[in-house]
Design goal:
With 529 residues, the chain is mainly β. Helices cover 0% and strands 57% of the residues. It is built from no helices and 45 strands.
Length: 529
């Protein structure tokens, strides 16, 4: 045995221990060893910089260990370990730079057995041992691993200032511990502990750089498997094979499954002023639905026990790509879900087997609302037209909403205990109006009948309006993006084109011409090629 002396500060007597030769600990490595009956201590060293977050964990078999950390000046910084513990942790922030010494020994006289010593040091570079888990993470990825006795698994990812970071850990057969460290190695958040098996860190980055994630046991001595998930907005992300997420289409229905600790990410684009409805219906678990803006800022969150039908209604204040996050809202729940997007006044699809689309005057439309369903319809109207809508429901309480050509909510009726809802609205402008049918009480499902009157499905022109010195001409019922030509004449034998354009996305057109009050008669002719 080699006699190693650690000189203590303040001229105290040297601390001398009989140890094996000191070995160098590598960040991220798993160092195994044996404590024999006649072994006083095994000695290890590693270097650290001021501010480094140091995690040392010792897992022992057949004996209770003692773990000691000494600083560069040989001062004892911390000691852990005692009978009958077999999983010991030192978490320390270095106050100076240099070489640190670690001693592993038995906590009781004559103890012997095997051990595994783990070092996780942030923000320093680290290795991932063969057969172990850790390394670089990709946004949206799912990372499976196993925690052995005293194990420390390290992961990293890049983030920008303002990013919304969601890290979720689901564990099997043990209670996990999840930690997030910033680019400078500072501990930002820690969650976990007995008896939780589903841990979440939600953090907004205050600076850019490489962040480190540490996964370990949260109770002491626990072992088992885990799944680690990263969802980061507004960064690009992947959808793992067999998982759910990705780009959404307005009107679409998206089915998925939430496994333990799962995070499913979706995106869609929106324009300023759009009315956004996101609805999540869940089976066998209580969901959590979150909406993030183009900057990554969290805009809204709904969900939690015991709700199985969650709704976000939001009006966009800027353009760009929005991110939707679906997860369990109670902790540890799993099951299936259906996610629905209804966005006004944007173009939308009607999924196969679902209900919605263009309505005609006097029409009656039958449909079925499933859990969290959103059915979208459209109708054209012009200024002064009276839009009459009536919704009758069976086995559920309905919600009926009318949105204008600009996507603004004009009227909404419904809710418990009504099963017959009526909207009567006088249009103040021309264009395509959107009707949204859904459950009005939360979690309801059943059939409905929707009747509409006072609207039209053919091209209609509103009477000209004189506004100050302007003559305003409007119309609706055309085809989105179809060409149109407006002609003017004071002599019916000669026509002059004054406006060539396209119908807008609401199937409407709007034109302002100078009013000529001195002209005895001015005529307009509207042509759709």
């Amino acid at each position: 045995m080699k006699k190693t002396c650690l000189l203590t500060a303040l001229f105290l007597p040297a601390l001398c221990l009989h140890t094996a030769s000191a070995s160098v600990l590598v960040n991220g490595a798993n160092q195994t060893g044996i404590i024999l009956t006649n072994t006083v201590a095994d000695s290890y060293t590693f270097t650290a910089g001021a501010g480094d977050s140091i995690n040392l964990r010792l897992g022992t078999t057949n004996f209770s260990g003692r773990l000691q950390l000494y600083g560069p000046d040989a001062a004892l910084l911390e000691t852990v370990g005692s009978y009958p513990v077999n999983d010991d942790l030192i978490a320390y922030t270095a106050t100076n730079s240099g070489t640190f010494t670690v001693l592993v020994s038995s906590a009781v006289t004559g103890g012997s057995g095997t051990y595994a010593l783990h070092l996780a040091q942030m923000p320093e570079a680290f290795i991932v041992p063969d057969g172990d888990e850790g390394g670089a993470m990709t946004n949206g990825g799912n990372y499976a691993g196993t925690i052995t006795l005293g194990d420390l698994d390290m992961f990293t990812f890049m983030a920008g200032t303002g990013d919304s970071i969601n890290l979720r850990l689901g564990t099997t057969n043990f209670s996990g511990r999840l930690q997030l460290y910033g680019p400078n190695g500072a501990l930002l958040d820690t969650v976990g502990g007995y008896p939780v098996k589903d841990d979440l860190i939600a953090y907004t980055a205050t600076n850019s750089g490489t962040f480190t994630v540490l996964v370990s046991d949260g109770y002491g001595g626990g072992t088992g498997t885990y799944m680690l998930h990263l969802a980061q907005a507004p960064e690009a992300f992947i959808v793992p094979a067999g998982d759910e997420g990705g780009a959404m289409t307005n009107g679409g229905n998206y089915a998925g499954t939430i496994t333990l600790g799962d995070l499913d990410m979706f995106t869609f684009t929106a324009n300023t002023g759009d009315s956004i409805n996101l609805r999540l219906g869940t089976t066998n678990f209580s969901g959590r639905l979150q909406l993030y803006g183009p900057t990554g800022a969290l805009l809204d969150t709904v969900g939690g026990y015991p709700v199985k039908d969650d709704l976000i209604a939001y009006s966009a204040t800027n353009n760009g790509t929005f991110t939707v996050l679906v997860s369990d809202g109670y902790g540890g729940g799993t099951g299936t879900y259906a996610l629905h997007l209804a966005q006004m006044p944007e173009a939308f699809i009607v999924p196969a087997g679902d209900e919605g689309g263009a309505m005609t005057n006097g029409g009656n439309y039958a449909g079925t609302i499933t859990l969290g369903d959103l059915d979208m319809y459209t109708c054209a109207a012009c200024k002064g037209d009276v839009i009459n809508l009536e919704l009758k429901t069976t086995n559920f309480i309905g919600n009926l909403q009318l949105y204008g050509p600009d996507g603004a909510l004009l009227d909404a009726v419904g809710g418990y205990p009504v099963t017959d809802d009526v909207i009567s609205h006088t249009a103040t402008n021309c264009g395509t109006f959107t009707v949204l049918v859904s459950d009005g009480y939360g979690g309801g499902a059943g059939t409905y009948g929707l009747a509409v009157n006072g609207v039209f499905d053919a091209l209609s022109l509103s009477p000209p309006v004189v506004s100050s010195t302007n003559l305003v001409l409007t119309g609706a019922g055309g085809t989105t993006n179809a060409s149109l030509v407006l002609y003017s004449s004071t002599n019916l034998t000669t026509w002059t084109p004054v406006f060539t354009n396209h119908f807008d996305q609401s199937r409407a057109f709007h034109y302002t011409n100078v009013n000529h009050p001195a002209v005895p008669g001015e005529y307009f002719r509207f042509v759709v090629p």
